[in-house]
Design brief:
Elements: H1 2-21, E1 56-58, E2 61-63, E3 68-70, H2 75-80, E4 97-98, E5 104-105, E6 120-130, E7 137-145, E8 157-165, E9 174-181, E10 189-196, E11 202-204, E12 208-209, E13 215-222, E14 234-242, E15 248-257, E16 265-276, E17 287-296, E18 299-303, E19 310-313, E20 324-329, E21 335-340
Parallel strand pairs: 3-11
Antiparallel strand pairs: 1-2, 4-5, 6-16, 6-19, 7-13, 7-17, 8-9, 8-16, 9-10, 10-11, 10-12, 13-14, 14-15, 17-18, 17-21, 20-21
Length: about 350
């Protein structure tokens, strides 16, 4: 299957890179099952009173728990539509989702909502670009080191991820491999894969615990898709960890339906937060996405040289925490993206 080939490709590519660069990484984390996405607290004054208190925090806004579904991620389910929630499917979400201001979200609004509130709930910053149709993304790979734990831990949620979206669709979805702080009621770092939110339903993989200092590889690629075909039925989202030995360990390998979308809007790094009221709630080190590479459906064998990253977002009200997106090229095909806070 293409998903297995993709995982093997990730291992080969990054083992070679690590050998060349002679990177030494300490093994520091455990792997295990976590709880459900973090539910809102009754005493959390950072959340709009319009949002019901039985809702949960996700990388896409506030959702009713029944609309946040952990799926198996089996490739046959993704390819043949068992995970699809179409207009006539009674599994479509019966509850509205909300943005940080407590306003109901349409499906496409929840993808790239940047926070301008003094309470930071939503996307803060990103590096992204759009590929001209009919071309689209084939693979996106990035390396990310898990930051230190936040100095102040008061129930906030922080998400760091790459992502894929199709532009111009009213009911577009987004694919994401996510590193998050306190996403699953754990007050710790974890990783998971997400597909949001056709008809208001948010699908995700089982979360896996990671620890500060772990080096992760985030990857997305289509399954069994002919070269040059811009829309592929299913995608694999993989998250690997590099062990002390230099070998990669697969934490997440999750397959999901593309709903026939051609993902031409590419996010190489995104910062999203919920419940941030002071700068000390962020980690003490910036988020560094390194060796970010993009391949396109028009030529899936070649990495895109000099990816034309643009910068979006930035919170505009207090507290100001030095938000910035720094972009540099390690070579013509490898981008280095730093999200500062």
């Amino acid at each position: 299957m293409r998903s297995n080939k993709f995982v093997r490709l990730l291992r080969i590519v990054f083992l070679a890179l690590l050998s060349i660069c002679a990177i030494n990484i300490a093994f520091a984390s455990g792997v295990g099952s976590l709880g459900k996405p973090t539910i809102l607290r009754d005493d959390d004054l950072t959340i709009s009173s319009a949002i019901p208190r039985d809702y949960v925090i996700t990388p896409f806004g506030y959702f009713h728990p029944s609309c946040v579904v952990e799926s198996s991620g089996k490739v046959e389910d993704a390819e043949y539509g068992n995970l699809k929630h179409d207009e006539n499917d009674d599994t479509a979400c019966k509850f509205p989702s909300f943005n940080s201001a407590g306003q109901p979200l349409s499906t496409n609004q929840s993808k790239t909502e940047y926070s301008t509130s003094s309470i930071y709930n939503g996307w803060l910053s990103s590096a992204n670009f759009v590929v001209n149709s009919p071309d689209a993304s084939d693979q996106v790979i990035a390396q990310l080191i898990v930051p230190p734990i936040p100095t102040v831990r008061s129930g906030q949620t922080i998400a760091l991820f790459t992502g894929l979206v199709q532009t111009g669709l009213q009911n577009a979805t987004i694919l994401q491999p996510v590193l998050a702080w306190n996403e699953f009621n754990d007050n710790a770092w974890s990783v998971s894969a997400w597909n949001c939110c056709l008809n208001g339903v948010l699908l995700h993989s089982a979360p896996v615990a990671v620890a500060p200092g772990d080096t992760l590889i985030l990857g997305m690629a289509p399954n069994n898709c002919p070269a040059g075909q811009s829309s592929c039925p299913s995608w694999n989202i993989s998250i690997l960890k590099i062990l002390a030995s230099g070998s990669p360990s697969t934490l997440v390998s999750w397959n999901t339906n593309s709903y026939n979308q051609a993902f031409n809007w590419i996010f190489g790094a995104v910062l999203e937060t919920y419940g941030i009221t002071q700068c000390s709630q962020f980690p003490s080190a910036d988020a560094q996405f390194s060796r970010v590479t993009v391949q396109l459906r028009s030529d899936p064998r070649a990495r895109l040289p000099n990816a034309p990253w643009g910068v979006s977002g930035y919170a505009t009200n207090a507290p100001q925490c030095g938000y910035n997106v720094g972009i540099s090229q390690l070579s013509s095909i490898f981008s280095y993206i730093t999200l500062s806070y």
